[in-house]
Amino acid sequence: MSKWIQQWTMDAIGPRNLILTERPLPEIGPHDVLVRTTAVSLNYRDKLVLESGMGLDLTFPFVPASDLSGIVEAAGEAVTRFRPGDRVISTFAPGWFDGLRPGSGRTPAYATLGGVHPGVMSEYVAFPEDWFVAAPTSLDAAEASTLPCAGLTAWFALIEKGQLRPGDRVVVQGTGGVALFGLQIAKAAGAEVIVTSGSPEKLERALGLGADHGVNRLREDWVERVLALTGDHGADHILEIAGGAGLGQSLKAVAPDGRISVIGVFEGFEVSGPVAPLLLKSPVLQGISVGHRRALEDLVSAVDRIGLKPIIDKRYRFAELREALAHLDRGPFGKIVIEF
Predict the structure, then answer these.
(1) 4-149+291-339, superfamily in CATH?
(2) Record: fold of 162-287
(3) Contact 238/173 with Cβ under 8 angstroms?
(4) DSSP classification of residue 136
(5) How far apart are CA 154 and CA 331, in angstroms?
(6) In the chain, which end has fewer C-beta atoms inside a 10 angstrom radius, N or C?
């Protein structure tokens, strides 16, 4: 094994500062595992961190990205969860194993990989064993790398928090990574799924994945269309990925006692909407910031059990990170993955 590895780093905020660098192979402590990276999937959040830092206390040189699939190459003397040769995926929020999210009302916790903690855009990483879970046996490395953030976000919203039931009407906004996971998970749970998008081509592809209805949000009022499709019942669950004033539209489309999972910030970091439907319908309005390790383990088990296959728009090589980020900017159908 070489004593030197390559990784993408930046010394200051801004994608233009990304460079491919070399560093010594990381050493492991007694509770750590050395993992050889086989794939990393990109998230919109990675783009925000690269462009603005998102107000996080980043340590430079900064290594981006959070979602890794890899193979354990070495384990510390006190490690009990894994051994060399095991396939693993990273956890987005190290230290959040189950239950209530860490942090307080004044200072919510947001210590994640590719943020406060080092990222994974590196040939090898050395992290505590608790920061990983076993990878699904039914997925390849690239597919497995899409679960820690996008997959878990949809699972946490619909299953862990949402308690989705067969026959529920689910609205999925867009056709990005979280959205398509939401479509697949909701269909597996027996829900009726309505996908909204501004692209006729992407709507056709979503219908091919099992969506029951596709609504072109640029050609028609998606709220009115959802109400018509559900016989005025409304949506039992909405994956609100637009954010901003889009929340107001979701409040109009949600069913009484329905649920809106606020996930995305494509239209801004301030959400707004009318108070009347909020009061009269009494929906659950929940913010989703990925999820805990136990839920990721539940997702992995479900993936193997139901045969869920993540949708990957394109796979890039490690040296092609800039091209992959440009593709992310254009709006992929599903996920963008870097393979090593």
Answers:
(1) Medium-chain alcohol dehydrogenases, catalytic domain (3.90.180.10)
(2) Rossmann fold (3.40.50)
(3) yes
(4) P
(5) 18
(6) N
Q: Coil, strand or helix: which one is 45?
A: helix
List of residues 6+ apart from 292 with CB closer than 8 A: 93, 96, 97, 98, 99, 101
Domain boundaries, the chain: 4-149+291-339, 162-287
Q: Roughly how many angstroms between the first and final C-alpha of the chain, as a whole number?
A: 16
* Separation CA 237–CA 221 (nearest Å): 18
Average pLDDT, the chain: 96
Question: Per-residue pLDDT tens for 6-32?
Answer: 999 999 999 999 999 999 999 999 999
Residue 292, pLDDT score: 98
**Per the confidence metrics, is the pTM higher than 0.85?**
yes
What SS3 state is found at 164?
coil
pLDDT at 1 over 70: no
Structure-token pair, residue 313: 């728009």
| DSSP reduced 3-state for 239 | strand
Q: What are the backbone dihedrals phi and psi of residue 326, each rounded to the nearest 5 degrees, phi first?
A: -65, -40
Asked if domains 4-149+291-339 and 162-287 share a fold, the reply is no
CB 206: neighbour CB atoms within 10 A?
26
Whole-number pLDDT of residue 282: 97
